[in-house]
Amino acid sequence: MKTQIIWPLALTALLGACAETATTGAPIRNLPEEVVAMAAPNQDLSSVRILPEDGCYWYRHVGPVETTLLPLRNTAGSPICTRAPEASAT
Q1: pLDDT, tens digit, for every residue of 8-33?
Q2: CA distance 60 to 18
Q3: Pair 60, 47: CB distance under 8 Å
């Protein structure tokens, strides 16, 4: 009886782990020239998007193991954002 319950639950968990996670924000087709000029080299500017959580530009990085979103950074290493970061309460 336990086997009949465990197998469907295990299969559901296994298939759920394989589901692709959706990212918010669609890639920007025409990136502003100011952003292109500020961006550091070796970043994929064809996949840049703005995430609503922080208002910053992010790009899709395709690495040898995984593909992930990374913050678009300027030549000084700071993230490029559309609004100032919120001050954290300390």
Answers
A1: 655 455 444 443 344 457 888 899 99
A2: 20
A3: yes
